[in-house]
């Protein structure tokens, strides 16, 4: 019998959805008995509660970081469903352009400013946390976002060319994170 993994994502420009799809594929390749259901946070708010959540044995939450904050819709959902996400194996993946500059000296994911604020606000203690670099897509941004992101990229030494699209995401790293998560799920399920 297959077990189900819930993957919820919050995304403004679609990259968190792409990350979620990649993680779902990597989970299935690592363990075909684990079937992932990917749900946009806007759909999760109404359709997932109590009994709907109980059919899932693990949860992955992928959320974009915008202007210093993890997606507020995701934060509200986690707060509302905290007792559920605390009981099962869980993975939080935040996606941020600032992660493109991370080095070996970068603090642990739970100590990163955006992540620690999110965890403090929600009270959640996920089993695993990953911070992934995002995708820069100037042509896709509206005037405000393009201006703000160009300013942030300018002060952080990044690309400011308004025609640029640059993929910073380390997809191999996300595959490894998904495989590690599968191990966690299998170990947790064998203990129960």
TrEMBL record:
Q: Which Pfam families match?
A: Flavodoxin_5
Give the EC number(s) under which this enzyme is classified: 1.3.5.3
Q: What class of enzyme is it?
A: oxidoreductase
Q: Give a GO molecular function annotation for the protein.
A: menaquinone-dependent protoporphyrinogen oxidase activity
Give the GO biological process terms.
heme biosynthetic process
Q: Which keywords has UniProt assigned to this entry?
A: Oxidoreductase
UniProt key word Oxidoreductase:
yes
Could you tell me which residue ranges the Flavodoxin domain spans?
A: 6-162
Name of the protein in its database record: Menaquinone-dependent protoporphyrinogen IX dehydrogenase
Gene source species:
Scrofimicrobium canadense
Highest classification ranks of the organism: Bacteria, Bacillati, Actinomycetota, Actinomycetes, Actinomycetales
